[in-house]
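Final report, Chapter 2: Outcomes

The project's central promise was a pipeline that accepts a single protein chain and returns its three-dimensional structure in a standardized token representation, suitable for archiving and comparison. That pipeline is now operational. To close this chapter, we reproduce one record exactly as it appears in the project archive, with the input sequence first and the structure output second.
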Amino acid sequence: MKENVKATVRNILTSYLEQHHLRKTPERYAILDAIYDINGHFTLEELGDKLNDEERFPVSRATLYNTLKLFMELRLVIRHRFQGSTKYEACYDNNSHCHQICTVCGKVSEFKSAKINDAISALHLKRFRKDGFSLYVYGICSTCQAKITRQLTRLNQQKQ
């Protein structure tokens, strides 16, 4: 992640903590830095492993959960509830995008679409200010589709 983005999100956190007379703990900053070092989606467990293994900064599950809740309030992190799993993602400089989710293997990948961005930008909602969007498109990835096709071919060959 770009260093200027990390500096900006650290400043946002610092300002919020000062305004609300909250402690500026090393855990909060370590978690924020780890999140903005991750490329893409992550689970609570993956974040904990990164802090413990790579950063040598172990934190409890409760600390991770409470800190992520704070970061979501500050719109520094977004939570996604994909098929059967909860994942998070840094969102300060990447809050409007689309996800394609395989309903077979659960693989999630992102894509951008100018047409979708334009359509949502042109959308006028009553008494609501848009900040960004996430779109989920469910289907079957090419890898799973190929496996299904091979299985069907084998079954058809066995029947003959």
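Archive annotation: Residues 100 and 137 are 5 Å apart (CA to CA).
This record, like all others produced under the grant, will remain available to the consortium after the project formally closes.
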